[in-house]
């Protein structure tokens, strides 16, 4: 009892640090890190007042969705958990059965594409941004239930032209990568 | 009266021919061809027992949707009005306000992408076909209400690899083109 409660305090302290580094660790991943059961992690979170992952993502995403200029909040596919306009962004999508081919339970390409396209548009610091060209590659089939993490990086900005790279990971595996060329249209009375 | 009823018979006969050539002419387009009003065309169709365009598309599409192996009928985006497996296909999508960016009323890229991807998969003669690579170009912004006609052509088939080109027209203008590389997976007990 003495030892286990020492371990528990230590674990909870490390758990706080871990979640500060990466706020989107799942209970499953945390359980693996500490070699404890998932219910133990849940209890830890409860005691520490840390909400469940979905709630943590929503909280962070809300603030980022407000930063986006080129899309309305409800037009964003996925939850934006990080965003620096004209530089980079990260969004998360939890896939489910509504997104899969019935026969294979593989997530349909256009849901993955929508996540990537939506993020590529969201990072642009302009009222309107349209995709001109996209070169995309689906590397590994994604199954229902997978949590996809999309990262976008603005690679080049020249006047109103942007090149944005997006890659999407499931756990540590890259499942998709794409290069998007976008054109921004400024708010009003620009030179057109 | 005599002259106008002669004209009407003549018009209705040509109208039948025109719709045999291109069953997807709109009432508006027909009205332009004959320099008459749209209600006149509607009356002609009524007298000739020709259903409205949407109905004509649905009737044709139903038969084509049955031919598709790689997708379930409800998974197809757009109405397939022509399909020859492993060769070519045509599908039609009527865009609406649910598909647009709120700010600009421009149809969101991923709806156009979905039409193209869905058609590229549908033309493949296999139980399962997945997109590996897509290189796509949005050429002209599409507005709500536009009727999009997507054409796919299987350009190359090598074992279980397919290259499919899709282009999408609105009226006579190309608004999108894409090259898709797909991989088919055969039904069962193949060599994997």
From TrEMBL, chains A, B:
Keywords: DNA-binding, Fatty acid biosynthesis, Fatty acid metabolism, Lipid biosynthesis, Lipid metabolism, Repressor, Transcription, Transcription regulation. InterPro entries: HotDog_dom_sf, Transcription_factor_FapR, WH-like_DNA-bd_sf, WH_DNA-bd_sf. GO terms for biological process: fatty acid biosynthetic process; negative regulation of DNA-templated transcription; negative regulation of fatty acid biosynthetic process. The keyword Hydrolase does not apply. Coiled coil: none annotated. The lineage of its organism: Bacteria, Bacillati, Bacillota, Clostridia, Eubacteriales. GO terms for molecular function: DNA binding; DNA-binding transcription factor activity. This is Fatty acid biosynthesis transcriptional regulator. It comes from the Bacteria.
């Amino acid at each position: 009892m003495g030892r286990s409660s020492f371990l528990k305090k230590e674990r909870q302290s490390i758990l706080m640090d871990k979640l500060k580094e990466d706020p989107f660790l799942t209970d499953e991943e945390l359980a693996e890190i500490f070699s404890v059961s998932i219910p133990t992690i849940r209890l830890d979170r409860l005691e520490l007042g840390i909400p469940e992952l979905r709630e943590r993502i929503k909280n962070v995403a809300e603030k980022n969705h407000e930063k986006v200029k080129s899309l309305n909040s409800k037009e964003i596919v996925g939850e934006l958990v990080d965003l620096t306009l004209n530089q980079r962004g990260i969004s998360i999508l939890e896939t489910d059965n509504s997104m899969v081919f019935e026969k294979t339970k593989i997530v349909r390409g256009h849901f993955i594409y929508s996540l990537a396209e939506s993020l590529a548009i969201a990072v642009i610091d302009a009222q309107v941004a349209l995709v001109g060209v996209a070169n995309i590659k689906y590397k590994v089939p994604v199954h229902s239930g997978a949590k996809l993490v999309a990262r976008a990086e603005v690679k080049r900005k020249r006047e109103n032209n942007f090149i944005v790279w997006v890659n999407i990971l499931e756990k540590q595996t890259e499942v998709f990568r794409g290069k998007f060329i976008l054109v921004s249209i400024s708010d009003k009375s620009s030179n057109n």
